[in-house]
Design brief:
108 residues; mainly alpha; Cytochrome Bc1 Complex, Chain D, domain 2; binds heme C; electron transport; signal; transport; metal-binding
């Protein structure tokens, strides 16, 4: 009896895992890239009560300019040059577009 219950539980877990995997493509490539930034800039770039700049809702061009300037060292920074260097120019543009599209004050 216990064995049957365990088997049922195991197959349920497999089914759940498959369902999760199938839902994965709903997360865009830019959202995946942007997840790395959340530790410092808040969920979706929406910092609350932090001294770090809020990225959510900034103009795309401003974000893009900053990111490229960090990468080249044109804009001085404590950490962002190191981070920006890890991305291609195309990825930096994707990140700028992603954060520009986020609503500031959207995440509580
Ligand atoms: C370890 C913490 C940390 C992480 C992770 C981080 N940032 Fe930053 N970010 C900072 C700090 C600190 C600044 C202020 C400039 C500096 O000192 O580097 C900043 C500034 C910025 C700015 C300039 C904003 C403005 O209004 O002047 C942009 C744009 C930015 N970060 C984008 C990103 C993106 C995109 C990512 C993810 C790929 C990211 N950051 C990840 C700490 C971080």
């Amino acid at each position: 009896m216990i064995r049957i219950a365990l088997l049922a539980a195991a197959s349920l877990m497999v089914a759940t895992t498959a369902a999760t995997a199938a839902a994965a493509p709903a997360i865009s490539a830019s959202a995946r890239l942007a997840a790395t930034c959340a530790a410092c800039h808040g969920t979706n770039g929406d910092t609350h009560g932090s001294t770090l700049p809020r990225l959510a809702g900034q103009p795309q061009q401003a974000l893009s300019t900053s990111l490229h300037a960090f990468k080249t060292g044109q804009r001085t920074s404590t950490i962002m040059t190191q981070i920006a260097k890890g991305y291609t120019d195309e990825q930096l543009d994707l990140l700028a577009a992603y954060f520009a599209a986020q609503k500031p004050g959207g995440v509580k």
